[in-house]
Amino acid sequence: MNSVTAEHLLAINREFYNRFGDSFSATRQRLQTGVKKILNSIQEDDSVLDLGCGNGNFLRELSLRGHKSALLGVDFSLPLLRDAESAPGVDFREVDLSQLSVVSDQLLIPDNWSLITAFATLHHIPSTEMRLDILRTVKKILKPNGKFILSNWQFLNSEKIKARIQPWDKVGINEKDLDDGDYLLDWRSGGEGLRYAHHFSAEELSRLAEQAEMRVSDSFSSDGDGGNLGLYQIWFPMV
What we know:
The protein is 32% helix and 26% strand. It is of the alpha/beta class. The strands form two sheets. Strands 3-2-1-4-5-10-9 form a seven-stranded mixed β-sheet, sandwiched between helices. It has a three-stranded antiparallel β-sheet with strand order 6-7-8.
């Protein structure tokens, strides 16, 4: 994918999450089943960095459980971050993940992070090049024995969500300039909007992990009525 198309896709999502951040947050008041499963595996002394933290519910729950180490959430959407700021004991910062490698030094803590999470986040990042830049930065700021846990939306598993796929000419993009698995979906809560998402396969994620010098140690499906709307993976750095 060329850089012009990638930036266009990022702009679509920036506009969406800044315009519809409040209504989106209202639909995300409960943690997904897969996220709850991850929560129960986190030790109270694990430092946690949440990439694309949204309204902060994941880190808020950790804090309410009496977490004893650093908790930091980053997102670019100011409406979502305003909701997140009500979480006690958690630090939140405005960060555009497409620039993560540029600002990574500002996110460092002593001995690096025990756990970095990216729930329903990577599928909004266009192009293999940009995803790898983020994933290599994750490895850089993660402890050698740390974990990276991510989930990605499996929207093609839902006929209802598939019906919301829109043609690319609505946003002036030629489909030939996109990668396989790129989709434009509509939004119908609090107004009509459009956002970009990539549908990952487990095999594609495994290739990304290898290129980022990480390895997939576990993978499971969760979320939604059928338990298959989220693909979760746990990665470890290769030493």
